[in-house]
Amino acid sequence: MKKTSAAILGIFIVIAFSIFGWFVLKSKQAPQTVKVVGYATEAFESNIVKWSVTLSERVSMNGVENGYRVMAEKLRDFEQLWKMTDIEASEFKVFPISVNREYGQGGQIGYSLTQRIYIVSDQITNVEKLAVDPMLFVEKGVTFDNSTMEFFSTELDDIKKKLLGKATQNARERAEEIVSATDLKVDKLISANAGVFQITEPYSTDVAAYGIYDTSSPDKNIKVTVSAEFSLK
């Protein structure tokens, strides 16, 4: 009986060591990887400007009809003056007139009529000069309540693709630096996930979890990260 128990125990020990050895072998055969975050940044210039202006007129409670006439004249004058600039526009968008009631301490005192116009052009320098010093319009009696410029690039998609490649290459270089003190070598890219793009004005440190696209400056800086995993050999 004792011999039988000893034999059974011996069999279990052999099985246990066999299983243990199998796990050790598998662990040694398991692929080794390294995870890193690559980074890339690049400066670029916009090639499109969008200039938005708002025309307005304030009228009395009974002056809305006349207000529409005045607004029509302002729009006509603006369009004629724009033609005088010789600045080509790929888009010239005029929005409907908006009418809002205005109130004072004693109640309603009249209405405010506003109309937004925007112009899209690739002649950034000329539009900037006009927007910064709009004397052509002022001298003809056309003034704006609001004037803003936004800058864009038609090449942004290509810039993003190029930057992702740079960030991935930077990730490989970082992985190689990490394993440089070992006998391992960086092999294949297993996975890569791009972060959001941060497009800011030059020398900005602003970042946001959902990304940034600053349109206030014609000169821009774009940044992106790539989380990558490489196999080792």
- What would CATH call the class of the largest domain? Alpha Beta
Largest sheet, in brief, is: 5 strands, mixed
Terminal Cα span: 53 Å
Radius of gyration using CA atoms only: 34 Å
CATH superfamily of the largest domain: Protein of unknown function (DUF541), domain 2
Mean pLDDT: 88
User: Total number of helical segments?
Assistant: 5
Beta-strand percentage? 35-45%
**Shape estimate:** elongated
- The proportion of residues forming helix, as a percent range, comes to 25-40%
Order of helices and strands: HEEHEEEHHEHEEEE
Number of strands: 10
Q: How many domains, in number, for the residues?
A: 2
- List the uncertain runs: 22-27
Q: Your description of this structure?
A:
With 233 residues, the chain is an alpha+beta fold. It has two domains: 31-45 and 155-232, Protein of unknown function (DUF541), domain 1 (Translation Initiation Factor IF3, 2-Layer Sandwich), CATH 3.30.110.170; 48-151, Protein of unknown function (DUF541), domain 2 (Alpha-Beta Plaits). Helix content is 37%, strand content 37%. The protein has five helices and ten strands, in the order αββαβββααβαββββ. The strands form two sheets. Strands 1, 7, 8, 9 and 10 form a five-stranded mixed β-sheet that branches. Strands 2, 3, 4, 5 and 6 form a five-stranded antiparallel β-sheet that branches. The longest helix has 28 residues, at 2-29. The radius of gyration is 34 Å and the shape is elongated. The protein starts with a helix and ends with a strand.
What's a concise summary of this model?
This protein has 233 residues and is of the alpha+beta class. The chain has five helices and ten strands, in the order αββαβββααβαββββ. The chain is elongated.
